Amino acid sequence: MAVDLKDVTDVATEPGTLPATMAAWVIRQDREGEPRDAFQIEEIEVPEPGALEVVVRVMAAGVNYNNVWAAMGKPVSVFRYHPEEDHHIGGSDASGIVWKTGPGVTKWQPGDEVIIHCNQASYEDPEVHGLDPLAAPSQKIWGYETSWGSFAQFTKVQAQQLIHKPKNLTWEEAASYALTYFTAYRMLMDRCNIQAGERVLIWGAAGGLGVFATQLCRLAGALSCGVVSSPEKGALLEQLGITGWIDRTGHAGMMRKGGESPDEEKERFKAMRGFGKAVRDVLGDDPNIVFEHVGQATFPTSVFVVKPFGKVVICAATTGYNLDFDVRYLWMRQKQIIGSHFANAWECTKANELIASGEIRPVLWRVMGFDGVAEAHQLMKENKHLGKIAILVGAPETGLGKTEEGPGAIYAEVGA
Ligand SMILES: NC(=O)c1ccc[n+]([C@@H]2O[C@H](COP(=O)([O-])OP(=O)(O)OC[C@H]3O[C@@H](n4cnc5c(N)ncnc54)[C@H](OP(=O)(O)O)[C@@H]3O)[C@@H](O)[C@H]2O)c1
């Protein structure tokens, strides 16, 4: 059935009651491919909340790279994660209003204004109750490994995913940051135990993870060197308190492509050494921490440039997940590689307090209407964005939902 996008900001029911259907951006397995084609708007039934679940009316949604992967069906199809649904409604960031609570939910009431963190795990797994929900066999990322994400009028989540919406933010600002900011928080604060005075190299520093890694370094009193691919992105980093930045286009020779000849390998090592010197020029010494998510192209450089006894913390591999590097630099210099994945509810809650106090700020590049979901993911795939993109869903215009004064988001005025 055709969906009239004019109606997306209207909901026919009051909090406490759900309408029968909703507009949603849907990926189907038979159209996985470029985001602009894979995402299509459909009319879908509104899910009922089960035990300890909540249905939230989405006021705004945040765009993340995970649904670029979902659209492409790479490295695996998301339908493998939720075979019980033949639709994938993506979207792992949202701000919204609690609309209906399921049995057993006591902390939240219809009408509460919330943001949503994207980690789900079963209440029944013992890891959730003493180790970490990220260690639970049931652990999934909502809106990527599950359907019922935020690119729809309503989303279904576990009650433990809800966090009070910071009052100083608009709907679109509040929807934009959680996934990447909370991931960067765990990587630096908990997995690396970052210390004042340490030096950090941040790949993709003007991207979704990077803008928060940069701000966290500033807040922790660490020096930061951001890597970017344009001076415009470098200018954004200066607004965020970066110590200095490097345009990687001047160091293209360091990138690992795979299948290089011995002579090409020698050249690559020379280029890595040159990059290492550029990093030292910014930081005054080699980095104690390298913030990794690029993967195959940069990982050998990360292991090479990090200081002896330093840490390479990695949460993704955008350029490829089969990593190879010269391991002599790892063992002889006693370096560590640390894996990290999103964050637990406690980390999310602590990190969110820094947003509510204005010490960490969302970084918005573009706010698009509900019709922009496919285009936003295409822009992200083509690396044409800076910081974050938000999508208005229930909010009829930008600037709504803020109920207290505060610094709000930083708006990246430059870009594609
Ligand atoms: N495990 C987790 O919990 C988790 C959480 C969040 C994100 N992720 C993953 O992390 C990755 C990045 O996410 P994001 O939100 O930061 O994405 P993003 O907004 O696209 O930013 C990534 C940045 O990486 C840089 N980059 C891209 N290709 C590169 C290359 N070939 N060499 C060097 N740098 C390159 C780009 O910066 P320049 O072009 O300016 O260098 C880009 O701004 C994605 O794969 C995402 O799925 C994982």
Report on this structure:
The chain is of the alpha/beta class. It has 2 domains: 5-177 and 362-411, Medium-chain alcohol dehydrogenases, catalytic domain (Quinone Oxidoreductase, Chain A, domain 1); 186-339, NAD(P)-binding Rossmann-like Domain (Rossmann fold). The chain contains 11 helices and 18 strands. Strands 3, 4, 5, 8, 9, 16, 17 and 18 form an 8-stranded mixed beta sheet that branches. α8 links the parallel β13 and β14 (311-314). The longest helix has 22 residues, at 262-283. The radius of gyration is 21 Å and the shape is globular. The mean pLDDT is 97. The structure holds NADP nicotinamide-adenine-dinucleotide phosphate. NADP nicotinamide-adenine-dinucleotide phosphate is lined by residues 64-66, 179-180, 183, 203-204, 206-210, 227-229, 233, 248, 293-294, 297-298, 315-316, 318-319, 341-342, 380, 383.
